[in-house]
Amino acid sequence: MIRVMGITRDHRVERGLSLEDTQSPNYVWSWVDFNAPSPEESEKLDTFFHFHPLAIEDCLHVLQRPKMDHYEDMQFLVLHALDPDTLGTVEVNLFLGGNCLVSFHQRAIKEIDEVWEKMDSRLAHRKKWDRGIYAAAYMIIDALVDQYFPCVYAVEDELDELENRGSSESVELLMNQVFDLRGRLLKLRRTIVPMRDLMYRILNSEHIQGEREPRAYFADIYDHLLKLSDMIETDREMTADLRDSYISLNSNRMNGIMKTLTVITTVFMPLTLIVGIYGMNFAYMPELQWRYGYFAVLGLMVMLAVWMILAFHKRGWFK
């Protein structure tokens, strides 16, 4: 679907226009949104707008890294939106040039739909500089970045809950949850860090039109991305600490089990020796003819076991 919006000189928004209307002098600037377009509609990037072939190729081949390219009088941006369910990325491409903003995305994106619907009220409260294509680009990027926060907060909430649980669950289950959180944080990091680098490039680019004020708005988005990056790094450090703690806890438990088995084995070693000696089939063993020999050997074995247990306890083996 291709939808077209035109902004008149008195800052009114008119929707439902055709592509040809974007060239009308009645509109100061226009926004064309390619929302999950068909192959025939995607060809309009070349046949109607005549964008650079490399930029069109980047649109049609997804999984591009967030970036900014300059082609003569046009800026091309690759952005990433987040799917809150899978934390997968959805690519959003922006063409900024002249008096037209073109957005291209292979899937419907809620944030862009919200900006599209709220453009009337937003333009009515903006200053003069903030009513052009760079203002719309800022609104789109800001909406995409705002969606990152709930995803990061959800991971932080699970991390806090996992940290408070302590050792109430099995170490194996806790370790699986820690590695799951680390995997999700890695997905977020792969999205947020490149977007942060892109915003840094935009702030330091000479191709951004306008005075200081629009840069201040883009700087605000950059600050948000810096905050998100710091949150992700902090959470990754926390998961690393939890992982090390669970590994140490598991090692301590294993050491306790091995110590218990060692004590039991050590106690039974001399008892096994005595039983082995008297289990030999020799004909001449004087103790076998003694009336109380059996009870004496059993008593010796009990006393030996008790003495060894007390000796181990005195040495602190059971602490």
Automatic annotation (TrEMBL):
Membrane topology: Multi-pass membrane protein
Keywords, in A-Z order: Cell membrane, Ion transport, Magnesium, Membrane, Transmembrane, Transmembrane helix, Transport
Residues spanning the membrane: 261-280, 292-312
Entry's Gene Ontology cellular component terms: plasma membrane
Superkingdom of the organism of origin: Bacteria
InterPro entries cross-referenced by the UniProt entry: CorA_cytoplasmic_dom, CorA_TM1_TM2, Mg/Co-transport_prot_CorA, MgTranspt_CorA/ZnTranspt_ZntB
Pfam families, sorted: CorA
Subcellular location, principal: membrane
Localisation: Cell membrane; Membrane
GO molecular function term, any single one: cobalt ion binding
Function: Mediates influx of magnesium ions.
Family per similarity comment: Belongs to the CorA metal ion transporter (MIT) (TC 1.A.35) family.
Protein name: Magnesium transport protein CorA
Organism the protein comes from: Paenibacillus faecis
Taxonomic lineage from the root: Bacteria, Bacillati, Bacillota, Bacilli, Bacillales
